[in-house]
Design brief:
This is Glyoxalase family protein. Residues 7-132, 153-271 form the VOC domain. An eight-stranded mixed beta sheet has the order 2-3-4-1-13-16-15-14. It has an eight-stranded mixed beta sheet with strand order 6-7-8-5-9-12-11-10, covered by helices on one side. It has helices at 18-28, 91-101, 165-174, 227-240, 298-304, and strands at 8-15, 32-38, 46-51, 60-65, 78-87, 104-111, 114-120, 126-132, 153-161, 177-182, 185-189, 198-203, 217-224, 248-249, 253-259, 265-273. It is globular and about 50 Å long. The chain has one domain (8-304): 2,3-Dihydroxybiphenyl 1,2-Dioxygenase, domain 1. It is of the alpha+beta class.
């Protein structure tokens, strides 16, 4: 069993409209945009990162906004819901805020003994806020949500699967422990994790496989401290029979990827070097930052990337 993984690092999703996406996460949810860069493989498309003040691993939601992408079809083999942590007693604030902002799909419920507020973002992607009892992480309060109700980071995510058996074994191998089962959903928790340490498995044997599009999660990333820990995880996964990519430099972290038995794309990402490697923390996410291989295209990209109204 691995002991290097500490919980989630980030979740990356597809979107259609960069400005609408930016507005929802910075204005409606009050997160900080910590990086404005481009897709490594398609630099005419943004890669936008939102999180806490420093973009701490376990707080970062990221998006690829493709202007002409079709809407994704929800299904199995993907992340079905991403869950943010908020303080106890704050859901009424969020319920009122969502009503004022016109947020859709808002539903109050209780699961695993926790109060939660489910909602959808602008591309139909599914989220929830959960009242966490002992989350000591500092929230970003320099934006549109300046009070104690602000989001602390991720609590975790739900994976939709046709069969969960092999994914359960994978999570246990990664260091997660089965904590509870409720309404057919199995909860796995990372002991001593980073706060973003819950993975729920929802088994839907008759649901078709999801089709990637706007609102679909492209991959879910798990955090390790550094490159040595990542290499140890990679070797263990290879030894277990998984096909794992070489280490890829993503500028703000190093990444490896592998496809899970249930079809979900997992990433293992390092906490180093962080989002302040090319911007001062006070100014994160303000300037367009380009991977070095695309810097020569800056003039063209600055005039052709869609406008984001800050």
């Amino acid at each position: 069993m691995l002991n290097q993984i500490k919980g989630l690092h980030h979740v990356t999703t597809m979107a259609r409209d960069a400005d609408a996406n930016n507005r929802f996460f910075t204005d409606t949810l009050g997160l900080r945009r910590v990086k404005k860069t481009v897709n490594f493989d398609e630099p005419s498309v943004y890669h936008l990162y939102y999180g806490d003040e420093a973009g701490t691993p376990g707080s970062v939601m990221t998006y690829f906004p493709f202007p002409h992408i079709i809407r994704g079809r929800p299904g199995t083999g993907e992340v079905g819901e991403t869950v943010f942590s908020v303080p106890e007693g704050s859901l009424e604030f969020w319920k009122q805020r969502f009503a004022e902002k016109g947020v859709e799909g808002v539903v109050s419920e209780e699961a695993f003994g926790e109060k939660r507020l489910r909602f959808t973002a602008v591309d139909g992607d599914h989220f929830a806020l959960v009242e966490a009892k002992n989350d000591a992480r500092n929230a970003w309060t320099g934006g549109s949500v300046a009070g104690d109700e602000a989001i602390r980071g991720f609590a975790g995510a739900t994976l939709r699967l046709r069969d969960s058996g092999a994914s359960e074994e994978l999570l246990k191998f990664m260091g997660y422990e089965h904590a509870d089962t409720a309404k057919g959903i199995k909860r796995f928790v990372m002991p001593g994790g980073n706060g973003a340490d819950v993975i729920d498995l929802q088994t839907l044997p008759n649901m078709p496989r999801g089709e990637l599009g706007s609102g679909s999660v492209h991959h879910i990333a798990f955090a390790v401290e550094d490159r040595d820990a990542q290499l140890a995880v990679r070797q263990s996964l290879l030894d277990t029979g998984y096909q794992v990519t070489p280490v890829i430099d993503r500028d703000y972290f190093f990444a490896i990827y592998f496809r899970t038995p249930g079809g979900v794309l997992f990433e293992i990402a390092t906490n180093e070097p962080g989002f302040d490697r090319d911007e001062d923390t006070a100014h994160l996410g303000e300037a367009l930052k380009l991977p070095s291989q695309h810097e020569h295209r800056r003039a063209w990209l600055e005039t052709h990337l869609p406008e984001i109204k800050d």
